[in-house]
Amino acid sequence: MRVGELLTAGFLALLSLYLMWKSTELPIGYIAGTGPGGGAWPFWLSAIMLISCICIAINWWRGTSPASQSEDPVLDRHGWKSLIFVGGGIIVFVALISIISMYGAIAVFLFYYIWFLGRHGLILSLAISLITPVALFFFFEGAMQITMPSGLPFTDPVFNFLYEIIY
Amino acid sequence: MDVLLLLADGMLLSLQPLNLVMILLGVTLGLFIGAMPGLGSVNGVAILLPVTFLVPPGSAIIFLAAIYYGAMYGGAVSSITLGIPGASTAVATTFDGRPLAQQGRASLALVTAALASFIGGTVANVLFTLFAPLLASVALSFGPPEVFALMLLAFATFVGLGGDDIPKTVFSICFGLVLGAVGFDQISGAPRLVLFDYNGFLQGIGFLVLAIGVYGIGEMLWTIDQTRGDVTATTPKMTIKGMASDTKEAAKRGWKGTMIGSFLGFFVGVLPAAGATPGSLMSYGVAKMVSRKPEEFGKGSPDGVAAPEAANNSASTGSMLPMLTLGIPGSPTTAILLGGMVIWGLVPGPRLFVDEQEFVWGLIGSFYISNVAALLINLAFIPVFIWMLRMPFTILAPMIFVLSIAGGYAATRDMFDIWLIVLFGLGAFFMRKFDYPLAPAVLAIVLGPIAEPTLRQSLLLSSGDPSIFFTRPVAGPITIIALVLIFLPAIKVVRRMRDERKPAS
């Protein structure tokens, strides 16, 4: 945790510097007749972010924050495993949206999580994975009239069937 | 006396069968729309606006106002049960609502939120009825320096009252403000902070993108990591007896927050462009400041739930005031309501109270009826919300992820924003590991677009002289209080360091 906190502060300091540099694409000073330039607000806020990062590093050096006193790893074996399986699952879920539609991706993600990660029974996992996207379809497309991504054309027959029920 | 007679007439009008059905339908729909992460009163009112052409204008506005009421109650539900604030007005509710739910006391949190919302709404209705024209003129006297001072005060409550790491809190606030500046410069119209030259950033970063990323993804990953995926602490039970004792406890431990939120929320809500978000945040800060047990805040204090909930309901009613009396909307939802009124041939402004008395008092009467209906319907549905929490975590967690992604898309309709949600979620997970408070960033992204133009307009008015924030009669005291709150922790640190040195020497 100790090294991690310093690395995080360093990364955020670099981000602050990038934002300061990016802000200078617009004027950052006071322009007579028009007021502060368009870049002034984000520039000075990013500067305060940078100063905050320096203060965080000083606190780390003084050992005042809990993380700076801890020798534990940022993520242990279980932590990495859950981050990869859950975080990775979410990334795959989002990537699948443009291929098999929002509702298809929801069904796959729910089945993966409930059956594979949650170790629930096959029937329960399948039931939740299939009922939830259908219920969400009627809520979003029918009640709220919000169209979700429908994926590649091969999903059309399913959507045509469901749209016939709504309209 | 005249006012009371007009109000009685208005209430009778809103109790007519058609209007009553509109109120009950609107409140119930609003409750569920508000409880859905990603959807808030704006979505509900906007989507259901065309439905109102089927009924007379009076019933139509009553329906929309009822949706608004229901959604404000519903916002607390997702904050408490799922830990995801569906709207910016409910961010402060997560601070204590979620810890209460995690302790298995979701019922107490939900009852407290419902009661506080009801009292907040009632206080606001009474203030609205009695002082509408007077408050409208006060609100008009708020220029850019006053609004900026108010924004400064909202941020100061975070810095001055937090026991958290101050540099991390300041970083979080500034980060949220910078994210709020992404897109276009509001004054010159030039593209600004188009990060890594991705065109997706041209449309800016919305509040929901950050909020859903932080709470729907980041916090959930953190919870899974901390609990090793075995969340067994949340097994709330729901009985009539338990609900009665929760009501008693909510009244006993949440009254102070409710009162603060009711009055402060209304006042902030009345101000054009301010709205319920800074109102709920300030109420939380003030409730913590005056509490005898401030250390309980953030760990599950009923006062911490009551203050923002009373405030956001009170502010919702308050924001109707400038809309009706001046034709200035106080929030995005009231802007849509204003649009609806114009479509129906009603002209908001000072003449509305004279020319359309029946309409105005019918609407005000419906606020009272909607408030009672919202309380009863909300309390009736609490067992349903509690049942949701009794689901095994390995089913609840993926449901939350799914609602976050689907709700996020419903709000923005852009896949770029969905990828941003995932990115913010992963970033928030690591920042949470190192104790960076993330709520200030989420609120800052909402308040930034209000704060920046008011700062720039103020400095333009004063030709760049910042003393404008100190010399004006209203802005001056607010700015000074804000600065005291901001520098209070720094003064405390210096004093502590001096005290530590004394015994050593």
Automatic annotation (TrEMBL), chain A:
Coiled coil start-end: none
Transmembrane segments: 41-61, 82-115, 121-140
InterPro entries membership: DUF1468 (IPR009936)
Alphabetically ordered keywords of this record: Membrane, Transmembrane, Transmembrane helix
Domain of life: Bacteria
Domain DUF1468: start-end pairs: 9-149
Signal sequence interval, chain numbering: none
Name of the molecule in the record: Tripartite tricarboxylate transporter TctB family protein
Species of origin: Yoonia maricola
Source organism phylogeny: Bacteria, Pseudomonadati, Pseudomonadota, Alphaproteobacteria, Rhodobacterales
UniProtKB/TrEMBL annotation, chain B:
Transmembrane segments: 20-39, 46-69, 75-95, 107-135, 147-163, 170-188, 200-218, 324-347, 359-386, 393-410, 416-431, 475-494
One Pfam match: TctA
Keyword list, A-Z: Membrane, Transmembrane, Transmembrane helix
Residue span(s) of domain DUF112: 20-443
UniProt keyword annotation of Transmembrane present: yes
Domain of life: Bacteria
UniProt KW Manganese keyword: no
UniProt xrefs under InterPro entries: DUF112_TM (IPR002823)
Official protein name in the record: Putative tricarboxylic transport membrane protein
Organism: Yoonia maricola
